[in-house]
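Reviewer 2 asked us to include a model.

Predict the structure of this chain.
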Amino acid sequence: MKNKRCAQIISTGTYVPEPVMTNKDFEKFLDTSDEWIETRTGIKSRHIVPRDKHVAASELGAKAAGIAMKRAGIDPDQIDGIICATFTPDSFFPSTACRIQAILGCSCSFAFDISAACAGFIYALSNANALIVAGNASNILVVGSEVISKTLDWTDRSTCILFGDGAGAVLMQASEQNGRGVLSTYMASDGTLGDILMLPSWGEKRTMKMKGNEVFKHAVRMMSDASLRALEMAGINMEQIDLFIPHQANIRIIQSVADHLSIPDEKVVLNLQKYGNTSSASIPLALDEVWNMGLIKEGTKVLLTALGGGVTVGSSIIRF
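Predicted model (structure tokens):
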């Protein structure tokens, strides 16, 4: 019997801009403190693109994707598709993915963007998985890239302290190894909650708006539920999960979801203290970190989950 076609993550790549903004830097222009920010969010610093230069999401994304390609030994003409998750695109069109394609020289690939805010990477991963399983592609770059600093009201203490800029990418490749790769993906949305986290585009002040308490409440509930559904779809239980990589939004949200799912601390991957909330880039940034630490081995099972504006939520189970 022929093995079923599946999609495996064969490499990762990340890139963050060099400038680092610490919590201390906010003390210079906001009524806040290093201790206040870290205690409530878990964040110590974040990378921010230079304020006096134009740096686009495609630039960050192309650098991350280029690293993933190099690590996998894949040439640009072997890439069949590029899917970029971002809510800070270079332009409405052409897509940021098309600009990444041009930078990398992937002339044989299709390219398109996905807008699901902080859940964007999982939505992009799910689409790439479906395309590969269906036989429509063999090598797809999935990129999460954000320049969130451009969207912030730097006088709003409730939002501007939370976010950072950066990009992460994975290279997904077709395989016929049973029980490997993406075991399940689950996505859901609730448009009735759209006003709790949003970025206007037309005729309004174009800065992020967030109702923090509402986001926290729904994030814990929906990320937990999405994780359980992904586990059920994969036919495995929580005890079989080796690593839990949640969207790096806020330490309190992450801890609450982990507690709700009874995931021990040693399985929870955290790096928001260095990067802040990088939206669609946060999961690939965290995955790349544990990969480089040697924690991703053959057979490692990872649970990913994220919630973003929309409201959008997604989870995925991957076996490496």
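Residues 212-234 form the longest helix (23 residues). The two ends are 23 Å apart (CA to CA). We have added this to the supplementary material.
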